[in-house]
Amino acid sequence: MNQKGKVQACFECRWFYVTWDPRFPYGCRSFKMKSLQLPCIAVRSTSGKECLYFKPKKIKHTEK
């Protein structure tokens, strides 16, 4: 998968969150980390492997 697809996957992951810390704006609850980079990029640069903890977000269905 290309880099653009992985970045998009990070935003669609249930473990991803945005922090209030301007020094570390992105976080991953699965890895228990905050980072300046998106977690999927930080994981790949550190381990050399793609993120293995990706889980799609649960979609909330709203009824009208």
Please describe the structure with a list of short key phrases separated by commas or semicolons.
14% strand, three-stranded antiparallel beta sheet, 64 residues, globular, alpha+beta
What does the secondary structure layout of this molecule look like, with pairings?
Layout: H1 3-11, E1 16-18, E2 26-28, E3 33-35, H2 39-47
Antiparallel strand pairs: 1-2, 2-3
Please summarize what this structure is:
The protein has helices spanning 3-11, 39-47, and strands spanning 16-18, 26-28, 33-35. With 64 residues, it is α+β, with helices and mostly antiparallel strands.
Walk me through this protein's architecture.
- With 64 residues, the chain is α+β, with helices and mostly antiparallel strands.
- 28% of the residues lie in helices and 14% in strands.
- The protein is built from 2 helices and 3 strands; from the N terminus they run αβββα.
- The chain has helices spanning 3-11, 39-47, and strands at residues 16-18, 26-28, 33-35.
- A 3-stranded antiparallel β-sheet has the order 1-2-3, with no helix packed on it.
- A hairpin with a 7-residue loop joins β1 (16-18) and β2.
- The model has no long low-confidence stretch (mean pLDDT 85).
